[in-house]
UniProtKB/TrEMBL annotation:
One of its GO terms (cellular component) is cytosol. The lineage of its organism: Eukaryota, Metazoa, Ecdysozoa, Nematoda, Chromadorea. One of its GO terms (biological process) is regulation of signal transduction. It holds the Pfam family LCM. One of its GO terms (molecular function) is protein C-terminal leucine carboxyl O-methyltransferase activity. This is Leucine carboxyl methyltransferase 1. It catalyses: [phosphatase 2A protein]-C-terminal L-leucine + S-adenosyl-L-methionine = [phosphatase 2A protein]-C-terminal L-leucine methyl ester + S-adenosyl-L-homocysteine. It comes from Ascaris lumbricoides (Giant roundworm).
Length: 425
């Protein structure tokens, strides 16, 4: 009885297995055969020039017995099917290309344009240094990395760069003098700026000096720093330099870090790797940096810095009064060079420059146009000296340029601890 049961179970299993194969293997085979039929139908239409497909013949030969003629209704139907699908694919690819271009134009290519402004600023500074507007023995070590060299600039540009460099340096010197050596300086969007070496030459003392920029810029700067030459840049570090990730350099009192300022978490992580002390008085410098960021991005960064650091000063050199006719001409000229200014709304006037800091946890802000600084804040004997270097065709152009740039100084936690820092000029 048990043997018969076993035989019955075996027959049942065989029947079930056969049914499973008949509903899977044979059905799958039928489905696969429809591919042969579709290929032959398409080839029939192609053979009568309903549409062009030079590649189909490479596959139709694999379809077994060939019956290339199909009824006209079938060929017209396949022409409509193939043509409709192709038009949808073409439209999708065109849209994807447009979206991709927009993404590249607002990220990769724009970032590249912003980074190229570093080369222009370095060459402009070198043109001024070459004519003895001011002294910078270290700049020549970086200008050679800027590609094709056009060192001459119009006198208005050289005077503007002299005023910018001199004003920033006077603020930094005041900060160091009044706070003392237990402090930090963070140069945001530093490019090839040489402030660290100029300060060291003057025997300035500080805990940390940090240069921050895109990693592609900092990698180039590391290459130039390490390159043999005079003066020896490496010899001025307080410790032998250690390189990390090809874009970061750690050298005791000097730190060079690559970071995207639009990503606060990335920035904070890099500042921590640079061993910054978030409790020490810290001076941030940004020269024509925030304007290249969207207002939401720059605002978020400013708010984070004010939150992370207990005692801080932020010095911002940037465009201002950009809504008048001269400002609009400036903007158009930059656009023609492929440079877009996403943060321009904060550069409308003095008040908008102040408000951007007050809205992001900074306690006090002073703003001056470079015209005011040039005429009233900088040493007038030096102004006379540099004005004798080159003659201006039109002084009005210089006045207009200086009227459309400003320096803002924002502070947080300074008033109580360092009341003497109320005014840097």
């Amino acid at each position: 009885m048990d043997q018969e049961a076993d035989m019955g179970d075996g027959q049942l299993s065989a029947q079930v297995g056969f049914r499973r194969r008949s509903t899977s293997v044979s059905d799958d085979y039928s489905v696969q055969k429809t591919n042969d039929d579709a290929t032959e139908c398409k080839f029939a239409a192609v053979s009568l020039n309903y549409y062009k497909d030079d590649y189909l013949k490479r596959f139709v030969l694999a379809c077994g017995e060939h019956k290339f003629h199909r009824d006209p209704e079938i060929s017209r139907g396949y022409w409509a099917r193939v043509t409709a699908i192709r038009s949808i694919v073409d439209a999708f690819l065109q849209l994807s290309a447009q979206v991709g271009f927009r993404r590249r134009s607002t990220s990769v290519s724009d970032d590249y344009s912003v980074q190229k402004t570093n080369d222009d600023a370095t060459e402009c500074k070198f043109a001024a240094v070459s004519l003895n507007y001011y002294k910078d023995d270290y700049l020549k070590r970086f200008v050679l990395a800027c590609g094709e060299h056009k060192f001459h600039r119009d006198p208005e540009i050289s005077r503007g760069y002299w005023a910018r460099v001199t004003a920033i340096r006077s603020i930094v010197d005041a900060f160091l003098q009044q706070v003392g050596p237990s402090c930090q300086i963070v140069n945001i969007g530093s490019g090839f700026d040489t402030l660290y070496w100029r300060l060291k030459e003057a025997n300035a003392r500080f805990y940390k000096f940090v240069d921050v920029d895109f990693s592609s810029v900092t990698a180039k700067k590391i290459h130039q720093i390490r390159k043999p030459g005079t003066p020896n840049l490496v010899a001025m570090f307080s410790e032998p330099p250690r390189e990390a990730e090809h874009s970061d350099l750690h050298a005791g009192d000097y730190e060079l870090i690559g970071a995207d300022l639009r990503q606060p978490d990335e920035l904070k992580g890099k500042l921590e790797l640079a061993s910054l002390d978030f409790g020490l008085p810290t001076l941030f410098i940004a020269e024509c940096v925030l304007v290249y960021m969207g207002v939401s991005h720059s605002g978020r960064m400013l708010a984070k810095l004010a939150t992370w650091f207990n005692t801080a000063v932020f010095v911002n050199y940037e465009q201002v009064n950009m809504k008048d006719s001269f400002g609009e001409v400036m903007e158009k000229n930059l656009q023609q060079r492929g440079i877009v200014l996403p943060g321009l709304t904060a550069c409308t006037n003095i008040e908008s420059q102040k408000q951007r800091f007050l809205d992001n946890h900074w306690e006090h802000v002073d703003v001056w146009t470079m015209n005011e600084i040039y005429q009233k804040k900088l040493p007038q004997d030096e102004v006379k000296r540099i004005e004798a270097i080159e003659l201006l065709d039109e002084r009005e152009l210089l006045t207009q340029l200086l009227h459309h740039y400003c320096i803002a100084i924002a502070t947080k936690g300074i008033a109580a601890k360092y009341p003497q820092l109320k005014c840097f000029f």
